[in-house]
Amino acid sequence: MASTQEKATHKNNTPSPSSSSSAQVLQNWSLAAPSEDPIPKAASMAALIRPAETIADPPATKTTTSKGISIMPRAQTSHPLDPLSAAEISVAVATVRAAGATPEVRDSMRFIEVVLVEPDKHVVALADAYFFPPFQPSLLPRTKGGPVIPSKLPPRKARLVVYNKRSNETSIWIVELSEVHAATRGGHHRGKVISSKVVPNVQPPMDAMEYAECEAVVKDFPPFREAMKKRGIEDMDLLMVDPWCAGYHSSADAPSRRLAKPLIFCRTESDCPMENGYARPVEGIHVLVDMQNMVVIEFEDRKLVPLPPADPLRNYTAGET
Fold first, then answer.
1. Which of 41-50, 113-122, 223-232 has the lowest mean pLDDT?
2. In a 3-state reduction of DSSP, which class is residue 89?
3. Ordered strands of the 188-199 beta sheet
4. Secondary element (H or E) of residue 9
5. Counting beta carbons within 10 angstroms of the beta carbon of residue 232, is it exposed (0 to 12), middle (13 to 18) or buried (19 or more)?
6. Which CA distances in Å does 109 have to 142, 175, 193?
């Protein structure tokens, strides 16, 4: 039976002609005392671990695919077809407002629409080919000597529809959004007005603020309140006033005026968000509101029509046809 020394010697492929060599093998296999360890554990671990802040980011250089096609690492924060971010919308609005001629003009601006100006197709193809994965260089036509890859994409643009309440004018603005840097919160942007034009004889859609103002004006109109009392409605909080744009049927409806014809509905509970508020229309009422000056310019109580009865299921029961 082989001794322990012989087993150790056999595993290390070391001959053991004498007991002195076996003792030497045992000494090599034994663990040294912690005080005699040439590399302390703390020092060895410290050599393997580096603070995270000392690891530098790799430089932004071109890389090559398996097919030998050079591509640029992503250098843009937004794809050309991405919707405008909240930061871009804020910058576009601030840029247009700052371009107003006077403080009165700037304060009268209503921003009806702020949308992305879709870029040309070659810009989209360039982005999908070299800036955003999956990289698809085949989207661009082949050229002699290879394609020229720019360092960044053209700036994005925003289109703004602005209504000036003071002058009753509608204008369209194009703002270029230039990215300064993208270090924090998606980047900081600055805008530049590319073009602006006033579009005559048009009215843009009404915004939420105008809806609220119109409802308040109609509810405070004394003839309207009297007409509601005839129908048994005392609480104005039960009423819903929905302004609808007036159709262009005659010169009286000319788009030079900003007009609305509100539709009236009566709820059964003023504090019930689950109720169908459109189940009980208040009919026989004609109201015309000047939305620019926020005044009722026409009112007629044409016919007393009874309100539909209240429904215990919050006005969701299907009616008979």
1. 41-50
2. helix
3. 109-116, 156-164, 169-181, 188-199
4. helix 4-11
5. exposed
6. 48, 16, 16
Q: What is the pLDDT of residues 122-162, one digit of tens each?
A: 788 777 777 777 777 776 666 666 666 777 788 899 999 99
Q: State how far the alpha carbon of 116 is from the alpha carbons of 83, 139, 153, 291, in Å.
A: 6, 23, 15, 28
| C-alpha closest to that of 159 among 227, 99, 255, 89 | 89
DSSP symbols for 32-73: PPGGG-SS-HHHHHHHH---GGGSPPPP---EE-TTS-EEPP
Say whether pTM exceeds 0.85. Answer: no
Buried b (16+ CB within 10 A) or exposed e, 97-121: eebeeeeeeeebbebbebebeebee
Structural domains of the chain ordered from first start: 69-143+150-199 (3.10.450.40), 208-301 (3.10.450.40)
Nearest to 191 by CA among 174, 172, 213, 214: 174
Please name the amino acid found at residue 37: D
| Cα 117 from Cα 22, distance rounded (Å) | 85
Residue 146 confidence (pLDDT): 61
User: For tokens 């932004």, what's the residue?
Assistant: 60
